[in-house]
Amino acid sequence: MADTDYDTQSDVLFSQFQGVFQSIDNATDVSSDLFLIIKTNPTFACIDALVASLFCNVEARPRDVDNLVLSFKNLLDMPDAGAIRIDDYDEQAEGPIPFADVFKNVLADRLKDTIHETQLHVPKHTEISPTNPTLSAALFSGSVIKNQALEGTSASYAFARQGLQLPDADRESDREETVALGACLQLAIAGARMMEEWLGKTDGQDAVVEALKALKVKHVVKSSNGVRLLDVSSFAYAECRMFNIWFTENDCERREQLCARYIFC
After folding, report:
1. How distant is the alpha carbon of residue 101 from its chain centre?
2. What is the distance in angstroms between the CA of the first residue and the CA of the last residue of the chain?
3. 172 touches 242 (CB < 8 A)
4. Residues 131-184: tens digit of each pLDDT
5. Would you tell me which of 78, 104, 143, 146 could form a disulfide with 190, CB atoms 3.0–4.6 Å apart?
6. Using an 8 Å Cβ cutoff, are 243 and 195 in contact?
7. What phi-psi label fits residue 166: left (phi over 0), alpha (psi between -120 and 50 degrees) or beta?
8. Which helix (DSSP H) or strand (DSSP E) does residue 178 occupy?
9. Residue 4: which residues within 8 A CB-CB, separation 6 or more?
10. Minimal CA–CA distance to 180: which of 171, 190, 167, 192?
11. Sign of the four-CA dihedral 4, 43, 74, 114
């Protein structure tokens, strides 16, 4: 497919996905609508447009992050979706590739590139604001982990360890505040699962508690809203010492209010 044809198709499909996601709310499952678009357009451009639309909506409507994540998780769970094949993703592949495999690869790459800001010659997003794509991607990654919507989330855990400035984690002084708050957002959404699946095994709960305290002592977080989020996170971890007391699966409203109040005003 020529570049102009690919861009045209992607733009058209992006608009269709945007229309679907605009109708999402707590009572609406849009996975069937997503499936119909993909079934009619089983191309890489379609998957690219779907992933782009997801990230666009997470940035525009962070309070709906769980609904957005569940929309594609439900899509992947549909038996009919498993039958869709993509034949223009990898020219060296022996045959068409299952839609789910292509989608997960593209989504994981987009998430990694966004939270770690891997694009060359693009200024880092260091302003602590609701429009910071790194923070919205961190929120998205937390929801993905909590809802077990994507395998291979090592990039998200590496981001959390970097934000907490745990031993052997990468350091980037120019965006340490952004990454620190991104880690707080991840923990606010998926702290219990992150401890169970990774952080608890590699670092331990006490190390995470001490890391949160150290972020405050070292004044890593300077924005007023960011300090409030860090204070709440530090108090909860230090006092409770058990993630499921503060970050339970039934605590969605509290988590959403916390994130919306302190970062996504």
Report:
1. 18
2. 42
3. no
4. 999 999 999 999 999 999 998 789 999 999 999 999 889 889 999 999 999 999
5. 146
6. yes
7. beta
8. helix 176-194
9. none
10. 171
11. negative
- Of 53, 49, 41, nearest to 84 (Cα)? 41
The whole-angstrom separation of Cα 90 and Cα 158 is: 28
Q: Dig out the tokens for 171 from the structure.
A: 């350091």
Long-range contacts at 74-79 (CB < 8 A, ≥ 24 apart): 74/29, 74/31, 75/31, 75/34, 75/35, 75/38, 76/100, 76/103, 76/104, 76/149, 78/31, 78/32, 78/35
Instruction: Count CA atoms closer than 13 A to 192's CA, side-chain side.
Output: 16
Closest to 114 measured CA to CA, from 102, 105, 124: 124
CA–CA distance, 96 with 88 (Å, rounded to integer)? 8
The answer to whether the CB of 65 falls within 8 A of the CB of 58 is yes
Provide the angle, in degrees to the nearest 10, between the axes of the packed helices 224-240 and 176-194: 30
Which pLDDT does position 242 carry in this prediction? 43
